Fold this sequence. Notes:
alpha/beta; Rossmann fold; 6-stranded parallel sheet
Amino acid sequence: xxxxxxxxxxxxxxxxxxxxxxxxxxxxxxxxxxxxxxxxxxxxxxxxxxxxxxxxxxxxxxxxxxxxxxxxxxxxxxxxxxxxxxxxxxxxxxxxxxxxxxxxxxxxxxxxxxxxxxxxxxxxxxxxxxxxxxxxxxxxxxxxxxxxxxxxxxxxxxxxxxxxxxxxxxxxxxxxxxxxxxxxxxxxxxxxxxxxxxxxxxxxxxxxxxxxxxxxxxxxxxxxxxxxxxxxxxxxxxxxxxxxxxxxxxxxxxxxxxxxxxxxxxxxxxxxxxxxxxxxxx
Length: 282
Ligand code: PAF
C-alpha cells in the first residue's frame, strides 16, 4: 500500500490504473479506523480492482462546540490497519490540498431538504461540511464507486442525492453497519463512553431493533412506537436527540402503507453522541 500526501502523486498513480482498465473505489474516512471501516474496504474491493482510502478530519463538518480538536487522530495505527486490510492507496491530504482557498473561503456544496432534519437539525452546517468535502474527494479521485456506511444513514442518502443531482458518474454503495457482539454499532465516538455507559449503550440498538420487529409484525402506530422507544431510552439514561420511523428512501413521514422504512435514532450518553438505524420492510 502506498501512503500518499501529494495530490499530483496520487493523480499519476490513478492514471496508470485507469490506463490498465482498472476501476477505482474510494472509501473516505476521518481515520481512527475500526472493523467498520475494514468492512467498507472489503465492500469496496468487491466493486473495483483498486481501493483508495482517504483519511482527513474535515474541519467544516464540525460545529463550534463539537469535538474537532479532540477527534482521535491515530494515523500510524490506521496505516498499519490499512496495510493489513490491503487497501492500495492511503491518501492523507493537507488542508491546503482539500481547501486550496482556505476552508472559510471554500465553495460550499449543499443539499437542501434532506439535510434539514435529524442530524442536520441538531448539527447545523454538518452536512454542508460533509458534502463539500466529499465533492472535493470525488473531484480529486474521480472514483468509479464510493463506499459509505449505513450507520450514517442520513449521510449516505445526502451523498446519493448530491451525486445524482450533480450528475457525477460515481456509483454510491452503502455498506452494512458493523456491530460489537452486544449490538452496539461500531464508531470512533464509542471511545468517549465510560465503562458504565458502555454497558448501557447497546440498548440503543436493542430498542430500534424491537421497534423494527413490531413494525414487521403489523404494529403500525408509528408515533406510539417512537414514544415507547424514547421513554425506554430516557429511563436508561440516554438524552434523545431523535428517534423516528421514516421512509427509507427519503426520510419523509410514512403513510401506514409505506413499505421500506428506516428506524433512525441519535442519543447522547455521557460525552458520546451515538447514532444507529435499521431498515425494515413492512
Ligand atoms: O463518515 C465520515 O467519516 C465522514 O463524514 C466523511 C464521509 C469521511 C466525510 O468527512
